[in-house]
Request: fold
Amino acid sequence: MTWYESGGEGSRTALLLHGLGATAAVWKSVERALQERGNVRWLAADLSGHGGSDWRSSYSVGQLAAQLVELVQQQMIGEIFVVGHSLGAYVGLALASAWFGIQVRGVLGIGPKVSWSAADLKAAQELATRPVRWYQTGEEALTRYRRVSGLGMDIAAGEEWLARGSVHAERGWRLAQDPRTFAVTGAPFASLVASATVPVLLARGERDPMVSLQELRMHAPQACDIPGAGHNAHIEDPGAVVGLLEHLVARV
Reply:
């Protein structure tokens, strides 16, 4: 099962895909901005192994993309523009390859990490093999979720951005994220960009420590900074993200 919510009106749909460790709740402010515009539908889904969506036996960027296809087809939406944050940008590029049987019209990638050191990859693989960690209280789990997702009080003080990040189960509280999802780390970004058959626009918060503007422009010459924002630019400046989406739509 893939958890999702949708809203808005229009012949075009923004498929909103979150980053590793987060949930679709991070798009709340972007959804409101799209709702105010009144000309674009939105569909926000929890990726497999995250939030309210099912866990799988294994994970890759391709598998995450494939598990969204049925949802997109069921929604019977028209033109699809993917807006993906971090890992979500990788998944959006995979969907834009046309390998999965759906027609994407454009991809907006926000803050994808594109360079991975050997230490980065080793750390991710270690995280992917760790057992689930249990917490005695919901507050402890929520605090851990904030750390893992990067949703600190400075940018996400309200709990609406944290929905479905932790769950209560038989042994107490745990994060909703399957630790094995860390195995997706290090996918070849250049290959995914090359496989996309549609316009791709990349952006980053100008204070994002995970990727530089120069790195993004190696893959998309028109890549840009979102002034004043960090890695979670879609939370910090949703209006700027919607503006970039409108710019992308105008190019198609």
